[in-house]
Design goal:
The structure is a single chain. It is built from ten helices and two strands; from the N terminus they run αββααααααααα. It is mainly alpha-helical. It has a single domain, classed as Hypothetical protein af1432 (Orthogonal Bundle). The protein has a two-stranded antiparallel ribbon. α6 crosses α7. The chain is globular and about 55 Å long. The termini are far apart.
Length: 187
């Protein structure tokens, strides 16, 4: 990849540093999409020994690129994002990737197809990390930043994405217990 192309891609990707998500951090700062993507990539790296049959490098790549479409559309919280919103984001992201030089273009397209199909263990792990990190972030934030619907959503969001792995089922249970403790301590 020539240096100018790299800079051009980074100029778009840097928008994720200032594209805010719905969640707030413990420090009272709104979470950026880059914060979220970085942490799920870190989580994948930390779990490498728990999943010896999974290509963790591929999972990390998925984690790092999965929300880049939001550099164009902004973040739309899951509880209001429609299928049309998701398709628009995917189309814009795909159009951007189509401008990449080879082999980067083909590599990213392959990753996106695998992520969307959710058939491989790598894609399933990525999706589970994406969901569980959001729950962890909410538990780290002050309850005053939660919307009323999030009290129930915290227990239902992404449950189906954890089912492929005993590890993620156990992690989800721990996060649910944390949620219950957080809510009960706030009363």
């Amino acid at each position: 990849m020539d240096p100018q192309t790299l800079i051009d891609i980074l100029k778009v990707a840097t928008k994720l540093k200032t594209t805010m998500r719905h969640c707030w951090l413990a420090e009272g700062r709104q979470e950026s999409v880059a914060d979220h993507s970085w942490r799920i990539a870190l989580m994948a790296m930390l779990l490498e020994s728990e999943f010896p049959d999974i290509d963790i490098n591929k999972v990390i790549k998925m984690c790092l690129i999965h929300d880049l479409g939001e550099a164009f559309t902004g973040d739309i919280p899951t509880f209001i994002k429609t299928n049309e919103d998701a398709l628009t984001e995917d189309d814009i992201f795909q159009a951007w990737i189509n401008q990449f030089p080879e082999p980067t273009k083909s590599s990213w397209q392959s990753l996106l197809e695998e992520m969307n199909a959710l058939e491989t263990n790598e894609a399933k792990m990525f999706k589970a990390l994406d969901k569980i990190e959001a729950l962890i972030s909410h538990n780290e934030s002050d309850l005053s930043t939660w919307l009323p619907l999030e009290y129930d959503l915290q227990y239902t969001y992404g449950v189906e994405n954890m089912q492929f792995s005993d590890y993620f089922i156990a992690l989800r249970q721990l996060v649910d217990e944390w949620t219950t403790e957080k809510i009960n301590n706030e009363k």
